[in-house]
Design goal:
The complex is a heterodimer of chains A (about 110) and B (about 110). Chain A is mainly beta. Chain A has no helices and eleven strands. Helix content of chain A is about 0%, strand content about 60%. In chain A, the strands form two sheets. In chain A, strands 2, 4, 5, 9, 10 and 11 form a six-stranded mixed sheet that branches. Chain A is globular. Chain A starts with a strand and ends with a strand. Chain B is built from no helices and eleven strands. Chain B starts with a strand and ends with a strand. The chains are: A mainly beta (about 110), B mainly beta (about 110). At the A-B interface, β4, β5 and β10 of A face β4, β5, β9 and β10 of B.
Chain lengths: ~110, ~110
């Protein structure tokens, strides 16, 4: 079993829909990252969480440390949100990240 | 501030050759981490450098090595290339605090023939 599990692996939505991507992990962590990767490879860090909830525009990320679970929500989804979303966890103070397998999101107009 | 830069962006090599990839972090960032991304294995941690010292290493063979210079620029080297080394190699720079965000470069896409 992987240390970081994401669900679903693939997600198709219509423009305007509310989207949720889930991430579960099995180790104690110091922080959790949500990353976005568009075709072509570039990775952008969306959020870094160690507790609670963060919001940026239409994106919301939450984390429950006790349950070892995090969610990424996209409100009012748009075709430009189509990308791979990756959950990554950091253990301890060093920079090593352990990644989930990614969720491929496709938003149709 | 300029972002993380990686050179070259694309590279084609043949089996048995060696390759060196370069990463220049964001100004002021002293930590650089390297990752390999393949369709089969996804993203995997290679190593992390801080102040010219390797402070963490992933589960990769000794053919994969790296170093960091005094200006925080980092290089990684892969010797005796194998077909399975074909991948996107990403570096990320970050500050050294526990909660520092990692900023990824555009990656170097390596194809081994």
């Amino acid at each position: 079993k992987n240390e970081v599990e994401q669900s679903p692996q693939n997600l198709t939505a219509q423009e305007g829909e509310f989207i949720t991507i889930n991430c579960s992990y099995s180790v104690g962590i110091s922080a959790l990252h949500w990353l976005q990767q568009h075709p072509g490879g570039g990775i952008v860090s969306l959020f870094m969480l160690s507790s609670g909830k963060k919001k940026h525009g239409r994106l919301i990320a939450t984390i429950n440390i006790q349950e070892k679970h995090s969610s990424l929500h996209i409100t009012a989804s748009h075709p430009r949100d189509s990308a791979v979303y990756i959950c990554a966890v950091k253990v301890g103070d060093y920079g090593k990240l352990t990644f989930g397998q990614g969720t491929i999101l496709t938003v149709h107009p | 501030k300029a972002g993380v830069t990686q050179t070259p962006r694309y590279l084609i090599k043949t089996r048995g050759q060696q390759v060196t990839l370069s990463c220049s972090p964001i100004s002021g960032h002293r930590s650089v981490s390297w990752y390999q991304q393949t369709p089969g294995q996804g993203l995997q941690f290679l190593f992390e450098y801080f102040s010219e010292t390797q402070r963490n290493k992933g589960n990769f063979p000794g053919r994969f090595s790296g170093r960091q210079f005094s200006n925080s620029r980092s290089e990684m080297n892969v010797s005796t290339l194998e077909l399975g080394d074909s991948a996107l190699y990403l570096c990320a720079s970050h500050q050294t605090t526990r909660f520092g965000t990692q900023y990824f470069g555009p990656g170097t896409r390596l194809l081994v023939l």
